[in-house]
From TrEMBL:
Cofactors demanded by this protein: L-ascorbate
Tagged with keyword Iron: yes
Record Pfam families: 2OG-FeII_Oxy_4
Protein name: 2OG-Fe(II) oxygenase
Keyword list, A-Z: Dioxygenase, Iron, Metal-binding, Oxidoreductase, Vitamin C
Amino acid sequence: MSALNLELSNELQAPALAATYKLAGRIHIPGVLTDQSAKDLFDAIADFKEWILHLNQGDKLFDVFPEQRKAMTDQQLHDIRMAAYAGAQKGFQYIYDNYPIYDAYHAGECAKPFNKLFEFINSKPFIEFVRTVTGHADITFADAQLTKFSPGDFLTIHDDNVYGKDRRAAFVLNMTPEWQPDWGGILQFFDKKKHVEGGFTPSFNALNIFSIPKPHAVSQVSTFSRRARYSITGWLRTGTDPKA
Ligand SMILES: O=C(O)CCC(=O)C(=O)O
Ligand SMILES: [Fe+2]
């Protein structure tokens, strides 16, 4: 695959988007990349094979790297999944595949096509666009991971607020072509009484941005979903990138 050359659509109306964001604290921006960029990015993601199975066990992170995963039996993988389901009955839980673009980039080992993706989300046009939309003129960099939610995967309610990370807003760029709301994987937002106050269906080439802290979740992808839910997710941060 040739190098990814990503560009923002030139039809984006940043000031109007900023007005919506100011009112709601969140926004769904369809058609954020040019059609060619979105297609090339999707092709790179669909080709990618080095997914890490990413879940928590209580407060601890639990990653299953590709080599370990290949060596596991179906029963072992099933048991891990059942442990995640049991965890979700008690508290905060997630299980999905990821690839830590930000960490890999700074370690000098980012999988080839995604170097360019990381550079794009930290490029002047992208940072200026998200500064305008969010009203946070002090955003200086973005971190990112690639995520893949397969049938059964989910991320329960949380608010993204981590002390010391200086996150100004969260972003999710959805990259699965065609998605039915019945397939789950909805980014849901909750009010103080835990009612669903709104949600974004993952639509292809749409960028969701939301303020922090804001309780949200990714609903479980249905067992009958015909696709996996692919996204690039991360945080728009201020200050000096500690890994740069
Ligand atoms: O994938 C999404 O829509 C949101 C992901 C998320 O909330 C997170 O990674 O903290
Ligand atoms: Fe989140």
